[in-house]
Amino acid sequence: MKFMLDATLKIIISSQCQLGEGVYFAKAHNCVFWVDILGQRLFRLHCQSMRVSQFAMPEPICWVMETEQGELVAGFAKGIYKLNSEDFSRELLYSIDNEPQQNRLNDGKTSRQGFGFFGSMDSQEQAPSGKLYRVGHGKAPEVVDQHYTISNGPAVSKCGQFLYSTDSEKQTIYRFSLSAQGELSNKHAFIRFTDSMGYPDGMTVDNDDHLWVAAWNGYGVYRFSPSGEQVQFLRIPAPRVTSVAFVGEALEHVAITTAAVGLDESVLADYPHSGGVFILKPGVKGIAETPLKL
């Protein structure tokens, strides 16, 4: 049964992203980060001062993660870099060389054991040439799944034994069994979106082990039970909802990114906050992201 989640809208940040994505709470920095992939910008919200800063990037930036040492690591279009937390200059860690020319990286998340999982996609959103990668624990990125058109998510269950990964173009969220060593098995379709729901995009898991899924062209975020039952829907005043994460020291708030790309003027007039970030208090707590163990 679907019903509206009773959430109080706290803040709208007018970041004017073409393609806002990858929202992430960095605990050691007490900051919320998100990216504008097409605009090649990184955003930072200081949770204490509530000051928002933005930094221009030399190529599309797709996600940010925190390491065990409190350093920042980011996925760019063609590689993974360490970011200087002062000026956000970058240092190459891994180049992703086995992708078609038109591909770029997309979304990423860590497992409970600190492995990083991230996807790639066809930037033209046509060919199933995208892959899912694993990185960490002293190993370079390696392909663990493939044949995605638009790899999205991923997310990990509260217990850490399941990984969720999305192919947005297929409107399908897959679930894998995930071992403590980061091995994936038993891939199967877990949730399929209908056309009226839009396209599944970024995801996270809350402290009740429910899966939250941002809905591109779906005007909100869906919440699913551990069995895959749709139980709640959080409506957002923007059509293209792209990622969701629990943020703040108590993890009592959710930050939700959106996109303005591809919307015509009449839609933008009706939804002027498209491309912004929405921060709400939904009455549910999140789970702290495990730092990446490089």
List the main descriptive attributes of the protein structure presented here.
mainly beta; globular; 24 strands; single chain; 294 residues; four-stranded antiparallel β-sheet
How would you describe this protein?
The N terminus is likely disordered. The protein is 2% helix and 52% strand. It is an all-beta fold. The chain has one helix and 24 strands. Strands 1-24-23-22 form a four-stranded antiparallel sheet, with no helix packed on it.
Please render the helix and strand layout as text.
Blueprint: E1 8-13, E2 20-26, E3 31-36, E4 41-46, E5 52-56, E6 61-66, E7 72-76, E8 79-83, E9 90-95, E10 103-110, E11 116-122, E12 130-136, E13 139-148, E14 151-156, E15 162-167, E16 172-178, E17 184-192, E18 199-205, E19 211-216, E20 220-224, E21 230-235, E22 241-247, E23 253-258, H1 265-270, E24 277-281
Antiparallel strand pairs: 1-24, 2-3, 3-4, 4-5, 6-7, 7-8, 8-9, 10-11, 11-12, 12-13, 14-15, 15-16, 16-17, 18-19, 19-20, 20-21, 22-23, 23-24
What does the average pLDDT come to?
Answer: 95
Number of strands: 24
Helix content: under 10%
Low-confidence stretches: 1-5
Radius of gyration: 17 Å
- From N to C, what is the helix and strand string? EEEEEEEEEEEEEEEEEEEEEEEHE
The span between the termini is 41 Å
List the strand order in the largest sheet. Answer: 1-24-23-22
Total helical segments: 1
Largest sheet: 4 strands, antiparallel
Shape designation: globular
Strand residues, percent: over 45%
Class by alpha and beta content: mainly beta
